[in-house]
Design a protein that fits this description.
Distance between the termini: 12 Å
Structural class: alpha+beta
Helix content: 25-40%
CATH topology: Translation Initiation Factor IF3
CATH class: Alpha Beta
Number of strands: 4
Family: Belongs to the UPF0145 family.
Number of helices: 3
Protein name: UPF0145 protein GCM10010345_87710
Strand order of the largest sheet: 1-3-4-2
Number of domains: 1
InterPro entries: UPF0145_dom_sf (IPR035439), UPF0145_YbjQ-like (IPR002765)
Radius of gyration: 18 Å
Length: about 120
Amino acid sequence: MSIEDYTGGSAPDAGVLVVTTNDVPGHDVKQVIGEVFGLTVRTRHLGAQIGAGLKSVIGGELRGLTKTLVQARTEAMDRLVEAARARGANAVLAVRYDVTAAQDSGTEICAYGTAAVIAPAA
């Protein structure tokens, strides 16, 4: 099984496998390159903040915030993959996300993991 089998081959991140596990079944880690990360900070526009305030009173999903967080997570992951690719990795192992409030004005989302070169086990 090749890396393309995992990533879909023609996907934007083709050639870089991203997993939350420490290893990939059927593959050996040939080289550990080191930590890589992708980072983004997002804020909501005034309309979304007002809508969120109203929702907090009556309850319900904050769809605008959910959409923003999904976009931010995708952007952080794209940046993680680019950082790994730039360092010569074909995989990122033990991927995690960290989300924090950034100075009460936005949300910081960081995707991070260990860049590595993997190959099918002999």
